[in-house]
Specification:
6 helices; 14% helix; 4-stranded antiparallel β-sheet
């Protein structure tokens, strides 16, 4: 997409806007005009036609960028699960993966078909172990995610002068879920079965599937970037379809799936907990299955919607480089911000802070009827206003 989507409170509400990526802000367009509470946690689809986002009421929404209408998906029963949601789109912008806390506080992953108006989220992970940070493969046939399934304490015994409890280290593994059924792991070494399959794909010999796909004597052309149709997903029984990525468990987070590599961060336990960015190739060759350190001491990173580039914050500076699994030259990848100027008005900044604290951050749609005040006016009557809201809330619950 050649548009940038962002949230702005220019109208007095947090609304979605779009603007050309070339910086012509005078052509900005307001997408929504129905905000009731603070919106955050947004993730645009790959083609830019939809935006998944959450709000202060812990509700997940799907926004149609063209019409400006939002569809309510689900409200989390957890009080903060959607404050920083894990959201991931498939390459064809049809499927959305997200996480939510179950009744026992375990994080689970759900899939949603956003093209079906009446579709409901389908849970795809267990309620016994935390699973999070989902990401679709480029062809949409696999769902990668992180899950805490290794429990090893570094304490030798519970006895000692301080009676130490168990200290778990390196609990997180990387897993791949077969969304089609019957697939071989993308990391399983080639054998005679895969050799036959590759010959069939190359056209050296026709498989039964190829015969069915022949139309007027020619094979159908299939775009490898198009995820399967809804009917191709088998979301009822996942027995035998979960595969472990051949990486030893560690302290991993923020998994993102590029075209040919898995990217994730790693942070050791200790007083100085530096975050490092790693890459792991999606390959069947066991000789190439090694973790590669991409960068050290990073603050955060994001994968582009095209899965081709990474933007990384390192030493408080943004860097952009290709997502090919190789270590970048940070000097060449650094984004030049020398021509950027930002105007700051302290009075306006303080007015904004007071307004945000009162009108949004500390409130939900229930209490906001009392606290929806603007600017410095919020400073007067704050205590009385909140007391009234609490009495009203308690009487209804």
């Amino acid at each position: 997409s050649n548009q940038i989507y962002y949230l702005s409170d220019e109208t007095g509400e947090t609304e979605f806007w779009s603007a050309p990526a070339n910086g012509t802000a005078d052509k900005a367009r307001r997408i929504t005009s129905d905000a009731q509470v603070l919106r955050y946690g947004s993730k645009p689809s790959t083609d830019g036609s939809k935006i998944a986002y959450t709000d202060r009421d812990q509700i997940l929404w799907i926004l149609n960028v063209q019409s400006g209408e939002s569809r309510r998906v689900v409200q989390s029963s957890d009080g903060s699960a959607f404050d920083y949601p894990d959201l991931a789109w498939s390459a064809n912008s049809r499927w959305l993966a997200f996480t939510d806390a179950s009744s026992n506080a375990i994080q689970r992953i759900y899939l949603l078909d956003t093209e079906q108006k009446d579709s409901k989220p389908i849970v795809v992970t267990t309620d016994r172990l935390d699973s999070y940070s989902p990401g679709f493969s480029n062809d949409g046939k696999w769902l990668y995610f992180l899950s805490d399934r290794t429990f090893r304490t570094v304490q030798r015994s519970p006895w000692g002068p301080r009676a130490p409890e168990a200290l778990l280290d390196k609990t997180t593994g990387i897993f791949a879920l077969d969304l089609i059924g019957g697939q071989r792991s993308p990391f399983q070494q080639d054998d005679e079965l895969t050799t036959v399959a590759k010959k069939a794909e190359a056209g050296e010999e026709d498989s039964p599937e190829d015969e069915e796909e022949k139309v007027e004597g020619k094979k159908k052309e299939v775009d490898e970037t198009d995820p399967p149709r809804k009917n191709d997903y088998k979301l009822e029984d996942f027995t035998g379809r979960l595969h472990h990525v051949p990486i030893e468990a560690g302290n991993y987070s923020d998994l993102q799936v590029a075209k040919s590599h898995l990217y994730f961060t790693q942070r050791p336990i200790g007083l100085t907990r530096s975050t490092h960015l790693n890459a792991f190739p999606i390959t069947r060759d066991p000789n190439g299955q090694e973790i590669k350190r991409i960068a050290t001491d990073i603050s955060s990173y994001k994968l582009s919607s095209s899965r081709s580039h990474i933007v990384m914050l390192h030493n408080s500076r943004p860097h952009v480089f290709e997502a090919k699994g190789s270590k970048p030259n940070l000097d060449n990848a650094r984004v030049n911000l020398s021509g950027v100027e930002i105007g700051v008005r302290p009075a306006d900044e303080w007015r904004q802070i007071l307004w945000m604290l009162g009108a949004y951050i500390a409130t939900t749609s229930t209490t906001r009827r009392c606290t929806r005040l603007i600017g410095l006016k919020f400073a007067r009557g704050t205590k009385h206003c909140f007391q009234g809201s609490l009495r009203e809330t308690n009487s209804t619950t």
